[in-house]
Amino acid sequence: MGYQVCFIQGDWLGPAVWDKFERHFKACGYVCSVLSLPAAGELGWYRVLHGADARSSPLGRLVDFYAEQIAAFPAPPVLIGHAMGGLVVQLLLDRGLGVAGIAIAPRPPQRVFPGILSLLQILTARSERRDGMRFLRMTPGQFSRRVAYPGARQVTGQLYEKFVGRVPQKLMTTVAFGFGSRLHLSHERGPLLLISGDDDHMVASSVVLANYFYQRRSLAPTDYISFPGYGHLLITQPGWEHVADRIIEWLQQQLGWF
């Protein structure tokens, strides 16, 4: 049996964004699952972040939620996350969870500046109050300029309807300022691969590169790949297969064939 691969939901986008990657990894012999919130939309966020330990940050509660699911697997899985899901992967690996981690266009941990593009997206998103929590939702124009770029307008509109949801304002604010994302840079963590698109208008490739240099303070294996011409949605834009295959190649180098 192959390694278990867990895809971790990030911010703004729903779990369906992993559909292509999940099919591809399954075809290559991996056992796959998408770790999403306990319910779709605002209710899922509410269940994870509301009423939990008030002493922890919203990001800490989210990482705890995923850590409980990962600990239930019979063997440590491969963790793959996008955007905030990529930050969650780094924090889970730092806790000693997961046999290896891949962070795609990841939001950075504390002590790595997130970049102006990412901060602007959070500060300019529309705020809405639902179920006792304040949520942010990007407009179609913001999605087209910052997340789906580069992409045709018609395709971008279809992606917006399929993937985009709301995300808690307090969570995004704490992530933007690094609250709850401090790493201990454990030498015992699993191998980590950081991936960026060099035309990313949400998490700039320079931010991911700075994150890579910060992660290299650990003696654990740490690698970085940048894909020319790719934007923030490396996992679903045309040419996503090349990204998936490079990840699989890296996993085989780190973990061996199964």
Automatic annotation (TrEMBL):
Keywords: Hydrolase
Entry annotated with the keyword DNA damage: no
Official protein name in the record: Alpha/beta fold hydrolase
Molecular function terms, GO-annotated: hydrolase activity
Statement: the UniProt record of this protein carries the keyword Transmembrane helix: no
AB hydrolase-1 domain segment(s): 10-238
Listed InterPro entries: AB_hydrolase_1 (IPR000073), AB_hydrolase_fold (IPR029058)
One family name in Pfam for this protein: Abhydrolase_6
